[in-house]
Structure formats: C-alpha cells, structure tokens
Design goal:
This protein has 481 residues and is an alpha/beta fold. The chain has helices at residues 2-18, 32-39, 55-65, 81-97, 114-125, 139-149, 158-169, 194-197, 224-238, 256-266, 282-292, 301-308, 331-340, 417-423, 469-477; strands spanning 70-74, 77-80, 105-109, 129-132, 153-156, 173-176, 204-210, 218-223, 245-248, 270-273, 296-299, 321-324, 345-350, 360-363, 377-378, 382-387, 400-406, 412-413, 424-426, 434-444, 450-455, 460-462, 465-467. α4 (81-97) packs across α5 (114-125) and α11 (282-292) packs across α12 (301-308).
Length: 481
C-alpha cells in the first residue's frame, strides 16, 4: 500500500509540474501501467460471435438439427422442437399479415404456459419486439406501460384479458392465444424469411420496463445482437447439453427469463415451465426439480435462501448449475449451497436490464470460504469501468460508479430521449462505443474480480426487481389523503 501511495503521489507531482493551472479534479494520478490495466487489460474480452444473426434464426438452426427432441414441458404437455417451431411459425405469419414490422413493440400478456413460449417466438419471427406484461402485476402498472409503449397489437390469454380489463383492450388489435381454433391454425408452418421482412440483428428483440424515479416506468430497448452475444457467452461459459433440463420460473417481465427461454432453446436442451405461482414456493420447486430432473436453475439470492431452507433440498441431485443474479449474494448462502449441494456449480452474475441481462460473472470455487462474494469479471465483448464523479477511472481498489460498454448495451429507453441521453453516453475510452451509467458502486478486489457495493442513489431491489422510491412517492402524492 505504501509503495502504491508513493507512486500515486509521484504521478500527481508530475501532473502538477506539467499542467499547474489544471483543476485538481482533472489531474491524472494513475500511473500509465495502472491506467492501461484498468481500461484495457481487464477489458480484453473480444471474441467472435454470430452478431449478424437474430435469436429466432439461431433457434431455427437448432430445430433443423433435432426436430424430434423435446423442447418444452409444461405439466402434462411435452412439445418437440419441430412442433414448437411450427406453432410459432403459423402465429408469426398471422402477425406479419396484420402488420407487425421490425422494431415494433408487440405486447404479450399471458400466464406462464406453452402459449407464452409460442407467443414470444412468434413475435421475434415476425420481426417484432416483445413487450412482456405480467398478468400478476397491478392493473395500474400494466396500464402505465401500455400508455407509454402504445403497442397497437396485444397477444393475450384469459389471465391477460382479465388483468388488463376491457378499457385497455379497446382500440387495440388483440390476438387470443387461448382460442380453441385459432384463425392462424391453417397458415404455413414454414420459417418466415428475415430478409423479406427487413429484419436484422440491429432490430429490437424486446422492451422490458423497470421502475422509474419520476413515477413512470421506463422501457429498456434491447437488440437481437446484444442478446445473442449474451447467450453465446453463456453457452461457452457453462456448456449446456441436449440432455440438460432448464427450469423456467422467472416472471417474463424480468430479463433473466430471456436466457431461461432462449439459451435453452438455442442449444437443444429441454425447457420445463414452472406452474404460474410455483416460483414463490420453495417446496414446490424442490418437488419440480426432483420430478423433472432439472439440471439448471436461476434464483435471486433472497429466494435462494428460502429454497436452501426447504425440506429435502439435498435430494435435488440432478442440479448441475445454480445461477444467481438480481441482488447481492450473501456469503452465508454460498457456503450453504456448497455444503448441501456440493455437486452443483454455483455462479454469481451481475447486470442491469439496460445491458442484455448480465455483464459480469463469477463461478464459485469448490474450496470457497470467503466473506465477500464477487460479481466477477466482464463477459464476452463487454467492457466495465469504475469511474468517479468526473468520469475519470478510479485507482485499483477504490470505489467507483460502474459504467458498462460493449455489445450488450441497450439502444436506450423507449420514448425517453432525455433520459436516454443522461444514462447512455459516448465512451471516452473506445471510439464509437457507448457506455451505460448504472448507478451501481463497485471496486476491484486484489484478484481482479469486482465487488458490488450498492447504489449511489435510493434505488432498492426486492426479489431482483428494481424499485425506485421516487415512483412510490409519486403514487402516494396522487392519493387524496
């Protein structure tokens, strides 16, 4: 430490000598080798990936490889890759016929079911960007999102119709995913041609809304190429096989659900859909994992605590991967997983909705006995910077705000140009790159992994969902006390 302080003071003295009139905050006290390490070495993540392809194209390639393999399981239903693709294609051709275009948000409000998976794939195949509306959300929240995004088209089932109400359905084209004899049943089962639609990987894949500090939720717009980079990195990191079984339990209004759906389906594994309310029930999850031989599951850390306390959790012998994100992961939870599920790999990921789900990752070593659980290092084609209030890099080990660059950065917020300009900025370090200002605080640990240290504002997280106190305050102010 003393040696480092000496180098920093020498660098400061040299900077003052060469630029005595420069404001102190603009002086560069980082030695050149440390600056290069922070900005370049820790961000050497460039790898090739199919950046010109869309999610739906990669799914279709997997269908051609193994059309008879089981793609999705929901209760007593089992659907093959070929049948899932055919169902999605028929619906996609219908969506194209009624006017879906690239970059167009298409709302989908359905309970977790086979129809949800078909609907998401169909929207992507038609060129649209899916806009998930969870029927479990308060109606006022759903109406806020509909008002802001103003989708002309809505896919819904009975639960979705009930949650939204007649007023929200009026003046919109509603596609009934629960129809006994859908009008698209006899349409072609062939894959729509992305080129004929003008669809490219630079178009939107989804728009997911998060809490807003002014009381209005904001929709993060994520492109195909960003999600594809995230999914390809995940496969290279964790090696999903066709024999794997992935549990889909995350509400689809939360971006983690995107990898649950698409990582599984792009790699030929089997996706098991949890019943609509099972994601809150640790005992039901234990039974489902045991019964379906689940190998891969995600938990927000607070739910992991409840899951690990459930009876018979040590009988989940099929589990091979437990992935955590959405909140800080306590060391006590890591130690408990290592003790009760020693055969299972535990992985801690970090990332905001504005950057394609996750941007850093850490895999827990078998011998881990630490008190700090890192969030790891940047994933493929991702750059992470810890900056001070003047957007200068902080010294190694110092606390800074986490800025994110690279392939995963979202396009911005739907219909919010001012907020987009505030949170998405041009990178001062890589020409042509954009940075997302996360508002999260972190520091580098001695081994080069990042430690998450909370927020620089009042935002909190509950079960992985971002909550802005300002949004709560705005709602309270509307109440006629």
């Amino acid at each position: 430490i003393c040696g480092y302080m000496q180098r920093a003071l020498e660098q400061l003295a040299e900077a003052l000598e060469h630029a005595p009139s420069t404001p102190v905050r603009e002086l560069d006290i980082l030695p050149p080798d440390e600056r290069a390490y922070l900005l370049e070495e820790l961000n050497r993540t460039a790898v090739t990936y199919p950046e010109q392809q869309c999610i739906n194209e990669l799914f279709e390639a997997q269908v051609r490889q193994a059309p008879d393999a089981v793609a999705v399981v929901y209760q007593d239903q089992r659907v093959s890759y070929g049948e899932l693709n055919a169902r999605a294609n028929r619906l996609a051709h219908h969506l194209i016929a009624i006017g879906v275009k690239p970059d167009q948000p298409v709302a989908i409000c359905v309970a977790r079911s086979m129809a949800m998976v078909v609907g998401l794939l169909a929207i992507l195949k038609a060129g649209g960007a899916y806009l998930p509306l969870d029927p479990a959300y308060p109606p006022a929240r759903l109406h806020q999102v509909l008002e802001d995004a103003a989708p002309h088209l809505l896919l819904a089932d009975a639960a979705g119709r009930s949650a939204l109400g007649d007023d929200a359905l009026r003046d919109r084209t509603v596609v009934d995913l629960a129809a006994a004899t859908p009008e698209w049943a006899n349409l072609p089962a062939s894959d729509p041609d992305p080129r004929a639609l003008g669809l490219t990987s630079r178009h939107l894949a989804y728009v997911i809304y998060t809490s807003g500090s002014t009381g209005t939720p904001k929709g993060a717009q994520n492109e195909h190429r960003a999600i594809v980079n995230r999914l390809i990195w995940m496969q290279n990191a964790y090696g999903l096989k066709a024999t794997d079984v992935v549990l889909q339990k995350t509400p689809f209004g939360f971006d983690v659900s995107a990898w649950e759906f698409f990582w599984t389906l792009l790699e030929g594994a089997t996706l098991v859909l949890a019943p609509p309310d099972a994601h809150r029930d640790p005992a039901a999850l234990v039974d489902l994992i045991i019964g379906e031989r689940i190998t891969t599951v995600h938990f927000v850390p607070s739910m992991l605590v409840s899951f690990m306390d459930a009876k018979s959790v040590d009988r989940c012998t099929s589990l091979r991967r437990v992935l955590c994100s959405g909140e800080a992961l306590p060391a006590a939870s890591v130690h408990k997983v290592r003790r009760l599920l020693p055969w299972t790999g535990l992985h801690n990921l970090y990332g905001p909705t504005e950057a394609a789900i996750d941007v850093t990752a850490w895999s827990c070593p078998d011998e881990f006995d630490g008190a700090i659980v890192p969030i790891g290092r940047p994933i493929a084609n991702t750059r992470v910077y810890l900056l001070d209030g003047h957007r200068a890099p902080v010294p190694f080990g110092a606390v800074g705000e986490l800025y994110i660059g690279g392939a995963g950065v979202a396009r911005g917020y739907l219909n919010r140009p001012e907020l987009t300009a505030e949170r998405f900025i041009a990178s001062p370090f890589v020409e042509g790159d954009r940075l997302y200002r996360s508002g999260d605080l972190a520091r580098y640990l001695p081994d080069g992994n990042l430690e998450f240290l909370g927020r620089n504002d009042d935002q909190v997280k509950i079960r992985g969902f971002r909550i802005e106190p300002g949004e709560i305050a705005a709602r309270l102010c509307e109440h006629p006390f």
